[in-house]
Specification:
300 residues; alpha/beta; 2 domains; 18% strand
Length: 300
């Protein structure tokens, strides 16, 4: 049970910030990584509680007294986060490679670790004339949107089986003014225009790869709030969707085109072996910062 300070206590922005940080550090429902995560999240929640206009002034003068209403709102937000509710759901958005991406309940939340997947795709698209890129299992569209934003001459398509996610991805593209990104609802390549076959330069995918037996081991902030089909494909080893992708991608890639797969480090060797067995060339594993994911690349 959280013990709140007496109602007559005068509290500053700094007091509340430290209080929120300490509360989040005690929570067993959230991941405590990186080391400064709780401090940054407490600051973001305080800014949100204060409102954009007041936040810049209050946080610039941390000894300033915070009024009762935003103080109480902040404490409620901290408790929501400490219970495991993701920051993106509380705020309604997250950032991805500098883009503000709206996120709602029922959709997979973009991860900082997936920025490596987008970066790897961008490197392989820049310099090409009118390249085409596909992002499978796109969710609310972060990778597809980042590619469309950073390679303005590219034609980018994202697919997902979730109607809610595709609707949000389209809304994100509209709000960002990205007319070169289109989103389709359907199962992997089945949602795409047939005219794209053998014309695609890069295919990206962050597949659900958690074996069903390991779902219970995930932190509450993930297993309690993320849609299950974004975490696992229910295959025994968790790599059923990836196997389908590797098999079907050559029908869509142009000669020399790349398949890029994001996985956790503990699955990297297995995924690399699968791509090699499927006939892909120049297969290798790349890593970025933070070192919590791998992108396995291979070309046809």
């Amino acid at each position: 049970m959280t013990i709140l300070p007496p109602m007559n206590m005068v509290e500053s922005a700094a007091d509340l910030w430290h209080e929120g940080e300490a509360r989040l550090k005690r929570s067993p429902a959230i991941q405590h990584w990186p080391a400064d995560r709780e401090r940054r999240e407490a600051a973001a929640l305080l800014s949100f509680a204060l409102g954009d206009r007041e936040a810049s002034e209050e946080l610039a003068h941390p000894d300033a007294v915070v009024a009762t209403r935003p103080r109480d709102r902040y404490r409620l937000l901290v408790e929501r986060r400490a219970s495991g509710e993701p920051m993106a759901h509380i705020l309604g958005w997250t950032t991805f490679r500098g883009l503000r991406i709206a996120v709602g309940p029922g959709s997979f939340i973009p991860r900082q670790s997936s920025e490596l997947l987008a970066e790897t795709a961008v490197r392989r698209l820049r310099g090409r004339r009118s390249p085409i890129a596909i992002d499978l299992a796109t969710g609310v569209g972060p990778v597809a949107l980042a590619v469309a934003h950073e390679v303005r001459g590219a034609e980018v398509h994202g697919t997902d089986i979730s109607r809610r996610a595709v609707r949000q991805a389209r809304a994100n593209a509209a709000s960002l003014g990205l007319r070169n990104a289109a989103f389709h609802r359907g199962d992997l390549f089945g949602a795409l225009p047939a005219a794209l076959r053998k014309r695609v330069a890069v295919i990206t995918v962050h597949p659900p790869y958690v074996p069903p037996r390991e779902l219970g081991d995930l932190p509450l902030e993930i297993r309690g709030f993320e849609p299950e089909d974004a975490l696992t494909d229910l295959s025994a080893d968790g790599l059923g969707l990836l196997a389908r992708t590797a098999e079907e991608a050559p029908d869509w890639l142009r000669p020399g085109g790349w398949l890029l797969v994001e996985v956790s480090p503990d699955r990297a060797r297995e995924v690399r072996s699968r791509l090699l067995r499927s006939g892909y060339r120049d297969v290798r594993s790349t890593r970025g910062w933070p070192d919590i994911s791998r992108v396995i690349v291979g070309r046809v």
